[in-house]
């Protein structure tokens, strides 16, 4: 079958279209005929072996697929790896049936990015009604859903950041109260100003480096910064217990893998998100569907922040 395979770690240039053996489902797994494979920023880390979990070679990247299971059901599933291919295997508990009203791309937008946004707000930040929420990269797959969910979950003020005017306008159209430039220079002051001159309660942060530092400085007492990525590939300044205690603020890490196997953090939120999309109450932003052979081009665009919304590879093209 056709798949994107890497035989060495590196940037987008290592993504190669190849003929590989068919996957064989183990007991408890589903074999899925892939109609679409989701592309996530985490995939760029996996390809260069800089992710939280180590990768091994040769590897077919891709952690999420939508398609037909061997029993005929249309499902969206987490696969860990192997998604950028014509067929993939997933453990049965990691697959969710997709309502007819939900498109392939919309379903893919939920399985990692939607679940991440839900858990960032509900599980890690523990958003309380009326609290202010900063969503970085608000035009991206996770950020655009987090803006909508924060509003739905009762946030008092939603502040988005994005790198361009067009992306900031998109965030405002999704329900953000304010949208500010994501440039780290002066970011803390812009966040406080956008919150009416007060420091903020919650920040969802996935850039690292100086953006993390500015976000932490903008936190109010008892505020929570939830970190779930290092898109800049730069670590923030070291933190000390005294720095946290002195401002009564918290830094919480989140990795979706720790939510899997816990129905209240995975299966139940996934059903909720799919129902919200089916009813039109949640609108995933779709960034485009590309032929499987264009995986390298998609990774290049993703790393350069030239994309918005959910990106999908179609192995049928």
Q: CATH superfamily membership of the largest domain, which one?
A: NAD(P)-binding Rossmann-like Domain
The chain-level mean pLDDT equals 95
CATH architecture term of the largest domain: 3-Layer(aba) Sandwich
So how many helices?
9
Strand content: 25-35%
CATH uppermost class of the largest domain: Alpha Beta
Question: How far apart, in Å, are the first and last alpha carbons?
Answer: 13 Å
- Helix percent reads 25-40%
Summarize the helix and strand pattern as letters: EEEHEEEEHEHEHEHEHEHEHEHE
Topology:
Elements lengths: L1 E4 L10 E4 L9 E11 L1 H7 L16 E6 L4 E5 L8 E5 L3 E3 L6 H21 L7 E4 L5 H12 L4 E6 L2 H9 L4 E4 L5 H8 L5 E6 L3 H9 L1 E9 L13 H5 L4 E4 L13 H13 L6 E6 L3 H9 L6 E5 L3
Parallel strand pairs: 8-9, 8-11, 9-10, 11-12, 12-13, 14-15
Antiparallel strand pairs: 1-2, 3-4, 3-6, 3-15, 4-5, 5-7
Helix pairs in contact: 2-3, 2-8
Can you characterise this structure?
By secondary structure, the protein is an alpha/beta fold. It has two domains: 2-97 and 285-314, Medium-chain alcohol dehydrogenases, catalytic domain (Quinone Oxidoreductase, Chain A, domain 1, Alpha-Beta Complex); 113-258, NAD(P)-binding Rossmann-like Domain (Rossmann fold), CATH 3.40.50.720. 29% of the residues lie in helices and 26% in strands. It contains nine helices and 15 strands. The protein has helices spanning 41-47, 104-124, 141-152, 165-173, 187-194, 209-217, 241-245, 267-279, 295-303; strands at 2-5, 16-19, 29-39, 64-69, 74-78, 87-91, 95-97, 132-135, 157-162, 178-181, 200-205, 219-227, 250-253, 286-291, 310-314. The strands form three sheets. Strands 3, 4, 5, 6, 7, 14 and 15 form a seven-stranded mixed β-sheet that branches. Strands 10-9-8-11-12-13 form a six-stranded parallel β-sheet, sandwiched between helices. The chain starts with a strand and ends with a strand. The model has no long low-confidence stretch (mean pLDDT 95).
């Amino acid at each position: 079958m056709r798949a994107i395979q890497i035989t060495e770690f590196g940037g987008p240039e290592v993504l190669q279209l190849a003929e590989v053996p068919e996957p064989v489902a183990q007991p408890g797994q589903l074999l899925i005929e892939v109609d679409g494979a989701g592309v996530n920023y985490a995939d760029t880390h996996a390809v260069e072996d800089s992710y939280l979990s180590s990768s091994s070679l040769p590897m077919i990247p891709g952690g999420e697929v939508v398609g037909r299971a061997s029993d005929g059901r249309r499902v969206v599933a987490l696969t860990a790896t192997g998604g950028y291919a014509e067929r993939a295997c997933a453990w049965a508990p990691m697959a969710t049936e997709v309502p007819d009203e939900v498109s392939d791309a919309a379903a893919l937008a939920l399985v990692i990015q939607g679940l991440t946004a839900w858990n960032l707000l509900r599980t890690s930040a523990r958003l309380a009604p009326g609290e202010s929420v900063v969503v970085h990269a608000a035009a991206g797959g996770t950020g655009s859903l987090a803006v909508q969910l924060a509003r739905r979950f009762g946030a008092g003020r939603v502040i988005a950041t994005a790198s361009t005017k067009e992306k900031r306008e998109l965030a405002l159209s999704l329900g953000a109260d304010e949208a500010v430039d994501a440039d780290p220079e002066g970011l803390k002051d812009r966040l406080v100003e956008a919150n009416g001159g007060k420091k903020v309660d919650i920040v969802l942060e996935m850039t690292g480096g100086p953006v993390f530092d500015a976000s932490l400085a903008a936190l109010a007492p008892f505020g929570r910064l939830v970190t779930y990525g290092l898109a800049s590939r730069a670590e923030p300044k070291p933190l000390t217990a005294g720095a946290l205690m002195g401002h009564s603020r918290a830094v919480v890490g989140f990795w979706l893998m720790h939510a899997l196997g816990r129905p209240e953090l995975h299966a139940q939120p996934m059903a909720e998100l799919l129902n919200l999309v089916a009813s039109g109450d949640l609108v995933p932003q779709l960034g485009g569907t590309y032929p499987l052979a264009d995986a390298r081009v998609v990774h290049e665009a993703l790393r350069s922040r030239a994309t918005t919304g959910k990106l999908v590879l179609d192995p049928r093209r």
